[in-house]
Amino acid sequence: MNRPNPLRDPRDRRLPRIAGPCGMVLFGVTGDLSRKKIMPAIYDLANRGLLPPGFSLTGFARRDWADQDFAQIVHDSVKAHARTEFREEVWKQLAEGFRFVPGDFDDDQAFERLRRTIEELDELRGTGGNHAFYLAIPPGFFGDVVRQLKEHGLAEARGDSWRRVVVEKPFGHDLESARELQRTLGDVFPSGSIFRIDHYLGKETVQNILAVRFANEMFEPVWNSNYVDHVQITMAEDIGIGGRAGYYDGIGAARDVIQNHLLQLLSLVAMEEPTSFEADSLRIEKQKVLSSVTLPRRLDLTTARGQYAAGWAGGEKVIGFLEEEGIKRTSTTETFAAVKLNIENRRWAGVPFYLRTGKRLGRRVTEVAIVFKRAPHLPFSDSATEELTQNALVIRIQPDEGMTLRFGSKVPGTAMEIRDVNMDFVYGGAFTESSPEAYERLILDVLLGDPPLFPRHEEVELSWMILDPVLDHWARDDEKGKSKPEQYEAGTWGPASADEMLARDGRVWRRP
Ligand code: BG6
């Protein structure tokens, strides 16, 4: 008879989600993403006991390395970036499953070697023919790699086993290229085996948006145009482009994060209640809301773009975008972008959603602010409410994860004076568990074959449909020499045109 474990908290009825026998092949092992995010997340999963004991990780790259050299790279990355403590016994077991296959993406023999390596791992480590191919490489190479996987029989699962492919954003650079990318992947892998990573969806605070909205009674009744004045979604970074000129120039802030992270945030904030948290139910609601998003007619007045100029960050002098190594002095790539969007449905008609993002801004913060309408009537003297602004619910995605409710309250004293106060929920104060990294959650979900946190191709297409007209508008302005991104000093909150954009609507951006 199964006796309950007396040490287990009876409230914890959740079964641990542990991946079954499997392995991962990582393309792009020398890149930042692999070293800073993917490798540490794999170790953290192993350390938390969520990977199968025989898990294997095979690196593939154009490097003359042996298995041990690859293991050293992973070791260094884990030491530098893992979230959980380093435990020798966990490391040893994990590292036994490391293999390295040297080769180019067009090298048939290398892919033959990869096939043999995977077969050996199935034998030796019991990976059961289950493998995820993680393409942490520039999208220009996706086609070459998936074609090779197909030609060498690596993409096809046999019997009960599975094969999956994992791709990172950017999913194309416009609608047309996103469709092309989908054709490339879809030729080789069935749609249920394609996992697109938008790492924002792996963040606890992002998943919490749906929890807060749909597990409570007090938010949904006011979550609509009757009470909400507007919504601001901000993703501000204090860093510059660092060593990423090659990727960033020609891409810019709108393609880099609005098309994916910010529009995903918008869809979670604005969607209707899904019938369940299954991937299909979520996708239906996200698609519905994304297809209701429209742009205002005058894009010159309702969008803003900028480029950081020299200034200050973290107490140090920093150079401007056009002085960064690898950036053309004539580049018109934006490092700041803001757009106003409308959602044409019953819930949101008349409530603008303002999205903004930028590098080298005042500080690093991502938040969603639901700003409510003013009370219809204030039974106080004008001077009593001079300092009262609008109520707001601010969902802090990062850092300082939590939520703040801003409302008016009487200042203690003999007169009636009302001022804004904040009521705060802070993750760290409410929960003892620290949040796992987004990549831990997402990699585990790939290995479990659990799709809700991965955007579907349809969402990707809809996001490009929203953004393409803005990008075309900016490109036309560039061509005609009509306007270009406005310079803003590093360490400030972006170009004046972004402030003017809101001022036209009688509103101001929050200073987070
Ligand atoms: C990535 C962007 O998707 O997100 C980067 O390509 C950006 O430009 C990064 O710096 C920010 O991620 P996070 O999790 O630190 O907000």
Question: Short summary of the structure?
Answer:
With 512 residues, the protein is an alpha/beta fold. 35% of the residues lie in helices and 21% in strands.
How many domains would you count in the coordinates? 2
State the CATH architecture of the largest domain.
2-Layer Sandwich
On the 0 to 100 scale, the average pLDDT is: 95
Query: How much strand content do the residues show?
Result: 15-25%
What can you see in these coordinates?
The protein is of the alpha/beta class. It has two domains: 23-168, NAD(P)-binding Rossmann-like Domain (Rossmann fold, 3-Layer(aba) Sandwich); 201-375 and 432-437 and 456-503, Dihydrodipicolinate Reductase, domain 2. The chain has 15 helices and 18 strands. The chain has helices at 32-47, 67-81, 88-95, 108-125, 142-151, 175-188, 204-214, 245-248, 252-270, 279-291, 299-302, 427-430, 438-448, 457-480, 496-503, and strands at residues 23-27, 56-61, 98-102, 131-135, 163-168, 194-197, 228-236, 293-294, 303-309, 311-313, 316-318, 336-343, 353-358, 365-372, 392-398, 402-410, 418-426, 486-489. Strands 7, 8, 9, 12, 13, 14, 15, 16, 17 and 18 form a ten-stranded mixed sheet that branches. The chain has a six-stranded parallel sheet with strand order 3-2-1-4-5-6, sandwiched between helices. Helix 5 links the parallel strand 4 and strand 5 (163-168). Helix 1 packs across helix 13 (438-448) and helix 9 (252-270) packs across helix 14 (457-480). The radius of gyration is 25 Å and the shape is globular. Bound molecules: 6-O-phosphono-beta-D-glucopyranose (BG6). Its EC number is 1.1.1.49.
